[in-house]
Write a structure and sequence with these properties.
Two copies of one chain form a homodimer. Helix content of chain A is 75%, strand content 0%. Chain A contains nine helices and no strands. The structure holds a DNA duplex (16 and 16 nucleotides).
Chain lengths: 205, 205
DNA sequence: CCTACCGATCGGTAGG
DNA sequence: CCTACCGATCGGTAGG
């Protein structure tokens, strides 16, 4: 309940984005991704912004709240992109491929935020963790339903949709460890290579 | 170099195991797994042992050194078990299956240590991280070679061995998040279910 | 293994 | 957004 209120406040802030606040989010995201949340003193963030540590608290209410903003915004963006992919139509296999492209596109566009999401979400307080888990479950549901659709229409075999979802997502998430957006491989190529290994297993009966 | 010396010292300590030292390792492993390395004060460890915090330092030289002991011992045990599986003979496909069983057996027998290994190894100092990376590379090499053998003997198709290794290991490692050694699923069953999804892709040409 | 204690650092606040 | 500062906690040590 409390966290729902906070999320409404967040949405409000994003309708009236302060450029200074966006700076803060990006600076903190990069520092948290590089050094970890707990190893990043608030003074490192204020230093990078060129202000005193005390002045940070006119932008944020707590360090934990700052982490929450980064993590939940990333989880929301994963969800938004997968919703778009799901609505784009085609066979279940085509949708699943587009879902994987959307997933990899997050690593291409928001790698630091993704790393903070994956590595640091457990450091949030209980209410905030609940929000993140809820959003992740909605996200995984899109995969599960797509695979279930594919079983119904004959694209896929007798795989358990939950099991298939987790094999696909854990294989994709491994890419967040090594994928370099500035390297030679496109996000689409990585997703397709992964699916070359996994699709035969999804089709097997 | 320095870290090689430390590892020799570790081996020595393990030849003369003090039961008190083993208690310490197990208590710290459980606390680090549950709360995270940085959120676990040394006082939480000494409390759980029933001694004062200062007395801990007659057993360890630093908190970081304690983390290293846990992580490198886990990485070593992963390697030892996979070496046994590799030497057990049979086709490449049989060996790969046994490698996956060995991997899952670590989650069954040493889940807390595995979680500390995966979640906290980045908090080690540079020398210690190098040791861990070196051991992980030796570990992955066993998988890579097994898949390469399987391509040569016709068990597998045209998959890139490195790519196949990472798909297999990332799918297995996902199990460390949810697998419950006391639950209904055996470690072998989980590994086999995972391989049912992945083997068809490894065989595909 | 204990007592007693350290210097450093932390997130956060009051008042302007 | 700054100055000045806080109470708490941290990993670790000296001397026994």
């Amino acid at each position: 309940m409390r966290s729902m209120a906070k999320r409404a406040k967040t949405a409000q802030r994003m309708r009236l984005p302060s450029s200074r606040y966006n700076d803060l989010i990006h600076i903190a995201t990069d520092l948290f991704a590089r050094d970890g949340y707990e190893r990043t003193p608030v003074r490192a963030i204020s230093d990078a912004m060129g202000i005193e540590s005390g002045s940070l608290y006119s932008h944020i209410s707590s360090k934990e709240g700052l982490l929450y903003e980064i993590v939940i915004e990333c989880a929301d963006e994963f969800f938004r992109r997968s919703e778009l992919a799901r609505k784009s139509g085609g066979t279940a296999e085509q949708i699943l491929r587009r879902l994987c492209h959307a997933h990899m596109s997050m690593f291409r566009d928001e790698l630091a935020a993704c790393q903070v999401y994956y590595d640091e979400w457990r450091k949030l307080n209980a209410d905030h963790q609940e929000d993140v888990i809820a959003q992740r479950k909605r996200y995984e549901k899109i995969y599960r339903q797509t695979i279930a659709d594919g079983i119904r229409d004959g694209s896929f075999g007798t795989i358990d949709p939950q099991w298939g979802t987790m094999v696909v997502l854990s294989a994709l998430n491994w890419a967040s460890v090594w994928y370099n957006p500035k390297g030679p491989l496109t996000a689409e190529h990585v997703a397709d290579s992964m699916l070359d290994v996994i699709f035969p297993g999804l089709r097997a009966r």
